[in-house]
Amino acid sequence: ASTEKAGDTVVFRLPKMEVGLVVICGCCGKQVAKPMFMENLDVEISYNSVPIPRDGWDLWPNNKCVRVMKRFGMDTQQSDRDGESYLAVSLLNDTRGQIKI
Fold this sequence. Notes:
By secondary structure, the chain is mainly beta. It has one helix spanning 33-38, and strands spanning 9-14, 22-25, 43-47, 50-51, 58-59, 65-69, 85-91. It is 6% helix and 31% strand.
């Protein structure tokens, strides 16, 4: 669990994936994704240690979730040798209770 301090990171190990997308949802409310993730410059989301550019994010499938990757296969986002990948949510600055995944 995050202490919501700068430098905190939560990492999710993902199974081998060849197709699909990556979505992250926030808690608790129906309209949380935009302020919690999309507009919050204190949050960085990375896939296999490579930050995912915000200009590719969108609300999906509702206003509680953000689709951060629409597809796989980019050269900078290779999985490890076992096919697993890692999604990290990092706090760049103190957030004072703004992030709940």
